[in-house]
Amino acid sequence: MGQRTVPRLLPPPLLLLLLAAAAGGGRAQGCEGQGRWPVPYRRFDRRPRPDPFCQARYTFCPSGSALPEMRETDALAVYRLQAPVWEFKYGGLLGHLKIMHDAVGFRSSLTGKNYTMEWYELFQLGNCTFPHLRAEDSAPFWCNQGAACFYEGIDDAHWKENGTLVQVTTISGAMFNQMAKWVEYDNETGIYYETWMVKSSPEKNSRVWFEAYECSKFVQRTYQKLAELGAVFKKIQTNYTTITLFSGEPVCLGNETSLFGLPGNKSLALAIRNFYLPFKPYHSVKEFFVNLLKILEEVVLDHRFYLFYNLEYWILPMKYPYMKIAYEEIPLPDSNATKFNA
């Protein structure tokens, strides 16, 4: 094999030309969300079958089952579950950085059975956040589906040792059954994991360009649905992990066909591939630091980040402080419905 040549990063002047081209013609490539902030998360009619190329190191939802139908007169305690990401592998390490995974627990008063419901990546977080660059494909290849997982039991030690297991409300069996129908719809139409939230600045009321779509958002949607069904939540503080990028107003560049197909946009296609190249898995400490320098050059020096959202590519004009991992309070929802009496 010959020596592989890594293409040079695009200098800032070329970036300006690309932005001008995108503003003039790239926006007409079916980017429905351009100018609507935050860009609405796109839902789909059905979930596609994952490509066999996408393989998970850890099996998705290994003991999963369908949501059971509860007796309408049952009373179920609802629990807030939170633990450090990859707690099973690293213990509480990521908990010290407040990088947490969220889920919902249920306990039936009639049967005494416990259940856990969560939403996460089919092929692990890295595959949802960055694509594969395959020699046979000009376009980056994504393994970024996420889905709901429901199974019997609550692993008390897992959630309590380094995280949270606390009751937030009580619902009826009838409310659970209605929620289960909503979960099926939500799971079949909201199929892609989105790691990043994107905002204009770290200020509290700054404009949100893109919302994340991950485990904590599923938990918040579930709580909101239960509130709509009449659940009354306790007055407790609830915090969630957010990973936020900061940028000026994003510009939509197009989708895979308009950028990487025929005739496509060769300059933008090459720029996007070059951007994602340093995010590939590294095999040595030296390679890690070389790739890290390339990432810093793109994001910090050239103020450029390519975001893949709703199956479309956007360019983010990055701003200081560029990225922030926060553990922010998002209150439990209010309900105007009558409280269920257990």
Automatic annotation (TrEMBL):
Keywords: Glycoprotein, Signal. GO terms for cellular component: cytosol; endoplasmic reticulum; Golgi apparatus; lysosomal membrane; perinuclear region of cytoplasm; vacuolar lumen. It comes from the Eukaryota. It catalyses: 2 1-(9Z-octadecenoyl)-sn-glycero-3-phospho-(1'-sn-glycerol) = 1-(9Z-octadecenoyl)-sn-glycero-3-phospho-(3'-(9Z-octadecenoyl)-1'-sn-glycerol) + sn-glycero-3-phospho-(1'-sn-glycerol); 2 1-acyl-sn-glycero-3-phospho-(1'-sn-glycerol) = 1-acyl-sn-glycero-3-phospho-(3'-acyl-sn-1'-glycerol) + sn-glycero-3-phospho-(1'-sn-glycerol); 2 1-octadecanoyl-sn-glycero-3-phospho-(1'-sn-glycerol) = 1-octadecanoyl-sn-glycero-3-phospho-(3'-octadecanoyl-1'-sn-glycerol) + sn-glycero-3-phospho-(1'-sn-glycerol); 2 1-tetradecanoyl-sn-glycero-3-phospho-(1'-sn-glycerol) = 1-tetradecanoyl-sn-glycero-3-phospho-(3'-tetradecanoyl-1'-sn-glycerol) + sn-glycero-3-phospho-(1'-sn-glycerol). GO terms for molecular function: bis(monoacylglycero)phosphate synthase activity; D-mannose binding; hydrolase activity, acting on glycosyl bonds; long-chain fatty acyl-CoA hydrolase activity; palmitoyl-(protein) hydrolase activity. GO terms for biological process: brain development; lysosomal lumen acidification; neurogenesis; retrograde transport, endosome to Golgi; signal peptide processing; visual perception. Residues 1-28 form the signal peptide. Exhibits palmitoyl protein thioesterase (S-depalmitoylation) activity in vitro and most likely plays a role in protein S-depalmitoylation. Belongs to the CLN5 family. This is Bis(monoacylglycero)phosphate synthase CLN5. It comes from Notechis scutatus (mainland tiger snake).
